[in-house]
Design a protein that fits this description.
Layout (H helix, E strand, L loop, with lengths): L2 E11 L4 E11 L3 E5 L6 H8 L7 E6 L5 E4 L11 H11 L4 H15 L13 H13 L5 E5 L7 H12 L4 E5 L3 H7 L2 E5 L7 E5 L2 H35 L6 H24 L9 E2 L8 E10 L2 E11 L4 E5 L6 H9 L6 E6 L5 E5 L11 H6 L4 E4 L2 E4 H6 L17 H13 L2 E2 L1 E5 L7 H13 L3 E5 L3 H7 L2 E5 L5 E4 L2 H10 L8 H15 L4 H30 L4 H32 L4
Parallel strand pairs: 3-7, 3-8, 5-6, 6-7, 10-18, 13-20, 13-21, 15-19, 19-20
Antiparallel strand pairs: 1-2, 1-4, 8-9, 11-12, 11-14, 16-17, 21-22
Helix pairs in contact: 2-3, 2-4, 3-18, 7-8, 17-18
């Protein structure tokens, strides 16, 4: 396998801490590398160094000659006024393709990405489809290596499942920073963790996330055992040092030097073993009511789009309800109906007297980047009130892995995960009977996620949660409600049951009947400029392309099965080339008919 990237001796420090040092990393053809670590540890910084968007303090990065590298950032900017096909075509031309070739490749890419209407404006897309489009633009230059920074953040579950399948079959190598444990489990073949507990603050192992965590557990167990053994030796040396007069002999001095080295080694071990987990807990009101929120025959629509109807729901203590569904189907709206912010079109909502509902949405509670950490946490006061006790703000921020010297630091200097911890800390200061959580896990590192899950498990009230983190949903939820997108809501026993049915459905349906009619209307206007035969060809084009894509896939499989038989492999390769040429001609013809129908020819 060819080496794409070779990094040797990389080191990087920020103003108040070392991120990593002496880091060696090799990325080869076909690489599937996942990068994990605490918030602010330097994961995104490492990606930027590999992408040559930031310089390391030490070390060198060597690239394969003429390497094509693409970098998909956490929140890509997309021109909402342009159509999907135009954005893809512009990306192709920016990579050096001719307008004609870019048009053909844009059609191919929109099909691979799953867009049913490539002529819709990008501004109308949900967050998940915008992320797909961003990935598509990155791939228009046929990169050898793609770097992804938190690609599952803010995606709905359908898009996460699509991304998993897409990356498993990707023809390019990729490196991904992610906190999505199931995503890492299903896609990666190697894990690199950036974490202060390792020498040099980094460690890598072959295998997926589960295999890595098993080896990580063994590493920590061995480290604790070594620390205990060293502590026992050091106690003996301390006794010897306390009994000896001032050392003069060479032998005594060497023993003193060895003891000092052991103390330094012990201090290093203790610093690495010191827990870096956040201390997360929520304030419950202590209410004993068995029915906290009751919804009867609830329905809600926006315009002609029906979100849900006929919903009956009783929410009681210790219930954890996971809300599933595509972006745009009404998950957040349902949370707001439960909260009382959104009034349903029909039905009744009743709540227990003096009920404390707390709604958490990272997007709703925007943080001012000019605020200091102290201003954001305690509104500038020296203490906060938690569980009826006054706690000094310096002690409070340590629960979330912040240092005292960061109190006057502006939020703009914090990573996305650190800002998420600020929001969680603000949430903890509010008493609640019912927690309504809209993607509370976005940007949180894995260690903090696990502490959050433990705290939510112990919460005595009710929780209704929207999340794309399948580990979190499976661990916490006692009930699942799936918003189907057609007005109905279906209950499921567990997440796995929903995912199986969900995947069997295939592609997502059109958003609404009105959008269907608009698409047909547009198609009719285009078709009016085609001849009778061209119109017939246009009507069957999509089906023919799907058949041709199936033929290419079958030919690919045949090549793989005959890899050890030169004679059969040659025939299979020729068959694959023929199938690919046929598919390329269909896409070229599709692009021609599209342009003619649109009046561009």
């Amino acid at each position: 396998m060819g080496v794409l990237i070779s990094a040797q001796g990389l080191g990087k420090a920020m103003s108040h801490k070392v991120l990593f040092s002496k880091l060696d990393l090799t990325v080869e053809d076909g690489e599937r590398l996942g990068i994990i670590g605490p918030n602010g540890a330097g994961k995104t910084t490492l990606l930027k160094i590999i992408a040559q968007k930031e310089r390391s303090d030490d070390g060198i990065v060597t690239r394969k000659k003429n390497l094509k590298l693409a970098y998909v950032i956490q929140q890509p900017e997309i021109d909402g006024a342009k159509t999907v096909i135009d954005i893809l075509q512009d990306a192709g031309e920016a990579e050096g393709l001719s307008p004609e070739s870019a048009a053909v490749e844009a059609q191919k890419m929109s099909s691979k990405l799953g867009f049913e209407d490539a002529y819709q404006e990008a501004g109308s897309l949900s967050g998940g489809w915008k992320k797909r489009l961003a990935i598509g633009t990155a791939l228009m230059g046929a990169p050898d290596l793609v770097l992804f920074d938190e690609p599952t953040n803010h995606l709905d579950l359908r898009s996460v499942l699509w991304l998993e399948a897409f990356l498993r079959d990707a023809p390019f190598a990729w490196v991904v920073v992610s906190h999505d444990r199931l995503f890492l489990d299903r896609t990666t073949q190697k894990i690199l963790e950036i974490n202060p507990m390792y020498p040099g603050h980094h460690h890598a192992e072959q295998g997926n996330y589960t295999i890595f965590m098993e080896k990580r557990f063994n590493y920590l167990r061995d480290l604790q055992s070594s620390a205990q053994s060293l502590a026992n030796k050091l106690r003996k040396e301390d006794i010897w040092l306390s009994r000896q007069p001032k050392a003069r002999g060479t032998k005594s001095q060497s023993r003193i030097d060895a003891a000092m080295n052991m103390k330094a080694e012990m201090a290093d071990m203790n610093s690495r073993l010191r827990t870096t987990s956040s201390d997360i807990d929520f304030q419950a009101s202590g209410r004993k009511s068995k029915q906290l929120v009751v919804l009867k025959d609830i329905a809600k629509s926006y315009g002609t789009k029906k979100l849900f109807e006929g919903l009956d729901l009783v929410i009681g203590p210790k219930m954890v309800i996971g809300i599933l569904g595509d972006n745009g189907t009404g998950k957040s709206t349902l949370l707001k109906v439960i909260e009382g912010e959104v009034i349903p079109d029909q039905g009744e909502r009743s709540i227990a007297p003096n009920l404390e509902l707390v709604y958490f949405d990272q997007g709703r509670e925007a943080l001012n980047p000019e605020w200091t950490l102290k201003r954001a946490i305690s509104e500038g006061h020296d203490s906060v009130i938690f569980q009826d006790r006054s706690i000094h703000v310096a002690s409070w921020i340590r629960r979330f892995q912040f240092q005292v010297n960061q109190l006057d630091q502006k939020l703009s200097f914090l990573s996305g995960g650190e800002q998420a911890k600020v929001l969680i800390s603000r949430l903890m200061l509010r008493k609640a009977d019912v927690l309504l959580l809209d993607e509370p896990n976005n940007d949180l590192d894995i260690d903090t996620l696990e502490i959050l899950e433990e705290s939510l498990e112990d919460f005595p009230g009710a929780i209704v949660i929207i999340s794309h983190d399948r580990y979190l949903l499976e661990r916490l939820c006692t009930h699942f409600l799936a918003i189907q997108g057609n007005g109905s809501i279906q209950a499921y026993a567990d997440y796995g049951q929903w995912e199986k049915i969900f995947l069997d459905e295939g592609k997502p349906q059109k958003k609404s009947s009105s959008s269907n009619s608009q698409s047909k209307s547009k198609g009719s206007q285009k078709a009016g400029k085609l001849s009778f035969n061209e119109q017939r060809e246009w009507d069957t084009m999509e089906v023919n392309i799907q058949k041709s894509e199936a033929e290419v896939a079958a030919a690919n499989s045949e090549c793989e099965s005959h890899a050890s038989s030169p004679g059969k492999l040659l025939a299979a390769t020729q068959k694959l080339e023929g199938a690919q040429q046929k598919l390329d001609k269909l896409y070229e013809r599709w692009a021609f008919l599209e342009n003619k129908a649109g009046g561009k020819i």
